[in-house]
Design a protein that fits this description.
The complex is a heterodimer of chains A (369) and B (328). Chain A is of the alpha/beta class and 369 residues long. Chain A folds into two domains: 317 residues, Thiamin diphosphate (ThDP)-binding fold, Pyr/PP domains (Rossmann fold, 3-Layer(aba) Sandwich), CATH 3.40.50; 34 residues. Helices cover 42% and strands 9% of the residues of chain A. Chain A is built from twelve helices and seven strands. In chain A, strand 6, helix 8 and strand 7 form a beta-alpha-beta unit. In chain B, helix 1 runs parallel beside helix 7 and helix 9 crosses helix 10. By secondary structure, chain B is α/β, with parallel strands linked by helices. The chains are: A alpha/beta (369), B alpha/beta (328). The interface between A and B is large, with 43 and 46 residues.
């Protein structure tokens, strides 16, 4: 472990590695605590199934999230119903908390445009693949609330440690500070940007300290401690809505965590990092940690855990069945939504192609599955 | 009868913005130096006094930030009109243009439309330093999801800008800065639309069709008038929108004349002239009586201004092009 990849002990922490209370827990009822636990189990199980689907050739390249459930689920639960989420491409766990059906996430990674159809009542922007490019959008979106006088709305924008090296990180954070927008910039520092370790990404001691340059607070949190993440995110959202006189609305949260698996299913992490490091971070796994705490508080027992596991497995299976039963999109869907009204040239391209497909039959175009 | 004002093209930009901002509170302008300074070309002069700092917004010096945050403003329900000071400085924001601005409707399956207008002065001829004279409309025309507009008169500028702001899809609005102040025209004070995607015949003619747009419209018309004295009757079609092209108007004019010249200051290879040539091949081959002649900038970096006059097509080169098409 490098000197930069410090243990999270000196960060905001509520639970230690064994699930013992070491800080003030957030004020959450048993139901919400159980929900957080359940959503983390759901995200983990979904992730394992998704990787397996990819390995079986039933899904395309997929970016796994295992290890990052504490950061995703803890932060997403802190959002109010009307708040917005601006994701990168790994936030499947946060997205399900915010109302995106698992089927949509599966469809997206199975290559279906329809996977990006976010339900109207779900305030999530579509996946942004180019690194850090969603950060200016988040700044602009929150700026629009200022301009429209929506005082109560706030949002969270997710990105990774690698994103902090991008120009768009700087430009978006800078705009957020200048226009004092109610957005929480949530950096999932999972230590590795594909193969580049955190200490090769920046000479800054922490990523959180970069917020100083934009005039607002940056805070490090143990990203594998869902309760600490919840607490810090809740505080940041509260400040976004009701800042003190000497505070700006934005906050950057650096959630220090670890990606247990590969960057994507196309990546082999054994090439660039050793198993000993992975094991050390696995000891901080957010799920057993919260489980242990909830058991000690009498909120969970064996029966409750078994029931949660069973319902989670069922929910994921149903989503996979639904996604795999989705009919293959019709060729003309390629042309939908490119413009509000399709220009004549594009209508012509569509009609000609549809006629061509009809003439040859779809099998002439589709590769064998 | 509506009242009119006698405006230059750059004043028509300002007037179009002001007119639509008056009518629609969701319209906000943002960019570098557009507020107190009124824009380096004065395209937003006085607008901040009129509409306030929350609607005419000076931004940090950051093209990607300007375009990217405008995407966010648009998703949030505003109608942002970001200005990039010169089109040669669009490239730091190019990723935001092609990866997001152009694709937001598609990616969100129609949930989010992006009614934004990205304005930038473009083109050569003003004796400016490096990176201030390029014509890269083909980059944007190549990108699905964008519309690309290049006005050539004050009247069209106001009407096209209003159409662009009202359009539910993102528009790249390239303003030919060479003719920002070249001439004046009566422009209605009220709001009106000049439709995007419709070309205008600037001069009717029977012998040859000359397709052009932006600042090249003037030398093209000059060439047509000069050749009229020699008995060559050229039709000049101002495209006004380079994406989507008004294919119908282009083909219709060509069917009448059977001969075509395309004039643009952008480099020849991969430019709009090639697209128009291909369109004529596809749609009107049997009418064709001569090879389509392209009179364009060269495939070189736009030179510094001591050589700029050689680079930009002028009336002499357009006349040669027309003669070649007619005499074939």
């Amino acid at each position: 472990m490098s000197t930069i990849q410090r243990d999270p002990e000196d960060r905001v922490q509520v639970l230690d590695e064994d699930g013992n209370l070491v800080g003030e827990p957030p004020d959450l009822d048993e139901e919400t605590l159980t929900e957080i636990y359940r959503d983390m189990k759901l995200a983990r199980h979904f992730d394992e199934r998704a990787v397996s689907l990819q390995r079986q050739g039933r899904m395309g390249t997929y970016p796994p999230l295992s290890g990052q459930e504490g950061a995703q689920i803890g932060s997403a639960h802190a959002l109010a119903d009307d708040d917005w989420m601006v994701p990168s491409y790994r936030e499947h766990g946060a997205a399900v908390v915010r109302g995106l059906p698992l089927k949509q996430t599966l469809l997206y990674w199975m290559g279906y445009e329809a996977g990006n159809e976010v339900p109207e009542d779900s305030n999530i922007l579509p996946v942004a693949v180019p690194i850090a490019s969603q950060i200016p959008h988040a700044a602009g979106l929150a700026w629009s609330w200022n301009l429209q006088g929506h005082d109560d709305t706030a949002g969270i924008c997710y990105f990774g440690d690698g994103a902090t090296s991008e120009g768009d990180f700087h430009e978006g954070m800078n705009f957020a500070g200048v226009y004092d927008v109610p957005m929480v910039f949530f950096c999932n520092n999972n230590q590795w940007a594909i193969s580049v370790p955190r200490e090769r990404q920046t000479a800054s001691e922490t990523l959180a300290q970069k917020a100083d340059a934009y005039g607002f607070e940056g805070v490090q949190v143990d990203g594998m401690d869902p309760l600490a993440v919840y607490k810090v995110t809740q505080d940041a959202l509260e400040k976004a809505r009701n800042p003190d006189e000497d505070q700006l609305r934005p906050t950057m949260i650096e959630a220090v965590q670890y990606r247990f698996g590969a960057h994507t299913t196309a990546d082999d992490p054994t090439v660039y990092r050793d198993e000993e490091e992975v094991e050390r971070w696995k000891a901080k796994d957010p799920i057993p940690r919260l489980e242990s705490y909830l058991r000690s508080e009498g909120i969970l027992d064996d029966d409750a855990v078994a029931e949660i596991e069973a319902t989670v497995e069922e929910q994921v299976s149903e989503a996979i069945d639904a996604a795999e039963s989705e009919p293959r999109p019709e060729p003309e869907e390629m042309f939908e939504h490119v413009y509000a009204d399709l220009p004549p040239e594009l209508r012509e391209q569509r009609d000609e192609f549809v006629a061509t497909v009809d003439r040859h039959g779809k099998d002439a175009f589709l590769e064998e599955e | 009868m509506s009242e009119t004002q006698n405006l230059t093209l750059v004043q028509a930009v300002r007037d179009g913005l002001a007119t639509e901002m008056e009518l629609d509170d969701d319209v906000v302008a943002l960019g570098q130096d557009i507020g107190a300074n009124g824009g380096v070309f004065r395209a937003t002069q006085g607008l901040q006094d009129e509409f306030g700092e929350e609607r005419v917004i000076d931004t940090p010096l950051a093209e990607s930030g300007i375009i990217g945050s405008a995407v966010g403003l648009g998703v949030g329900g505003m109608k942002p009109v970001p200005e990039i000071q010169f089109s040669g400085f669009m490239y730091p924001g190019f990723d935001q243009i092609v990866s997001h601005m152009a694709r937001y409707r598609t990616r969100s399956r129609g949930r989010f439309s992006l009614p934004m207008v990205l304005r930038a002065p473009y083109g050569g001829g003003i004796r400016a330093p490096e990176h201030h004279s390029e014509s890269k409309e083909a980059f944007y025309a190549h990108e699905a999801g964008l519309k690309v507009v290049v006005p050539s008169t004050p009247h069209d500028t106001k009407g096209l800008l209003i159409s662009a702001i009202r359009d539910p899809d993102p528009v790249v609005f390239l303003e030919p800065k060479l003719i920002y102040r070249a001439f004046r025209e009566e422009v209605p004070e009220e709001a009106y639309e000049v439709p995007i995607g419709e070309a205008a015949v600037r001069r009717e003619g029977a012998d040859v069709s000359v397709f052009t747009y932006g600042a090249m419209t003037r030398p093209t018309l000059e060439a047509a008038e000069n050749l009229a004295e020699e008995g060559v009757d050229a039709e000049v079609v101002d495209l006004r929108t380079v994406s989507p092209l008004d294919r119908e108007a282009i083909v219709e004019s060509f069917k009448k004349t059977g001969r075509a010249v395309v004039v643009h200051e952008a480099p020849k290879s991969g430019g709009l002239a090639g697209e128009i040539t291909a369109l004529l091949q596809e749609e009107a081959l049997v009418y064709q009586e001569a090879p389509v002649k392209r009179v364009t900038g060269f495939d070189v970096p736009v030179p510094l201004y001591a050589m700029e006059d050689y680079y930009l097509p002028n009336a002499s080169r357009v006349e040669d092009g027309i003669r070649e098409a007619v005499e074939f």
